């Protein structure tokens, strides 16, 4: 047992071994050539409290997201923490009297907690090739904000543009952009922003002049099924697979409805809603990534059992009623969320698929389209190269079984119908110490039903995808479905419609082969987050930043090429 455990323990804890990939690359003669900017994904960047309110003052300039201070803040004052972390539902910016900003510098996303690295190992290996603050930076950001508001409030994209221009104008180096997860969607938005004559004003050739390569690591290009469950009911596989005692404590401390409300205030998370509709993700008749001879399709995102079967745990594929495809599910979610959230989605994001090239060009002027690779074109940068590196071979949530509960009131403002019929027209008491509230109308009935993941559903039949605790599993990296990770890389961006400059795209899959007793999987992992410590990934990054990207070649362990061809592109 000691012999099995020791290699993973040594790799996890030894500072010497942390530099091993970089030293091997240096010994092969690799030298730094390009500047590097790292762009983290959602929840990776630490967030600091700049609030001076009495309940938040004890945590001033401390991390209330990421780090041990976050845990203390949640335990000591969950209400204050929630108020600070939530965004205003109408403006999408800071709530009144609270102020939270992203941490800055390489340490902003080097580790989430002490000992739990994120970008730390990649930074260490780059340092072996003599990278430092002069030519290596991490563009952290407040991932709660919509991409548009990141520029409005923090001037994030202006700062990123200046940093990349500095690399060329001062250091005389083009930049390699390395993005992870949601950071890849954000980077796609940046490309369109910087080209825009009304926004970034960099011109159509800015990317060509400044960017050498884009390393797209585990990019959420077509969205994440997990986002669909989190927005609908505040759940995901991580919350439904814990034991009953932990579930009870979680619900008592931070209920499903509280989690869903907080998630919905984070407009940035909406960038991970599934894109392409049924054309990409399938329908009742099947999905591109269905297994051969499947009797349950991933094309139905939300599955509901007949209510007569609600208390029957003996469920098979024949007793299920899959009835909500992705197109249906979007409407279903919109029925459950406040009008303010619907407005935010419509003004910031788009989730369709555009097949008309003239319209794709017109979309250059619509920032709501820029994070969707199915509705915008890649930049006109023929010499830039895109590397898609992601993991495969790990069970990943793909669809869900849900259960209906009782009816509930929505979260819309109360309305005094006698005063005019709308919340905006209802009288408001402006007197000091006023405690009057507008009562509900006598016939104000609950309009929607509670829903939650039906954890009693488990299907292990070899002819259907595995279903565990109400979650339908598929291939991916443990977080992002294979369909989202690779489809644009192997098929979408091979089409001139979406890639008019003919940018070369290399797809390099990494097989998930974790060490059995290493808590993070060791150097052979390909998990969505832990892949940032993978030896294979780090070696590929070092080859690319050294100008030897031709050594990183197409590599496939999955059926992504076959799957992507089944998408209804035309």
Automatic annotation (TrEMBL):
GO molecular function, one term: O-acyltransferase activity
BP GO annotations: lipid metabolic process
Domain of life: Eukaryota
Cross-referenced InterPro entries: AB_hydrolase_fold, LACT/PDAT_acylTrfase
Designated name of the protein: Phospholipid:diacylglycerol acyltransferase
Organism: Rhodotorula graminis (strain WP1)
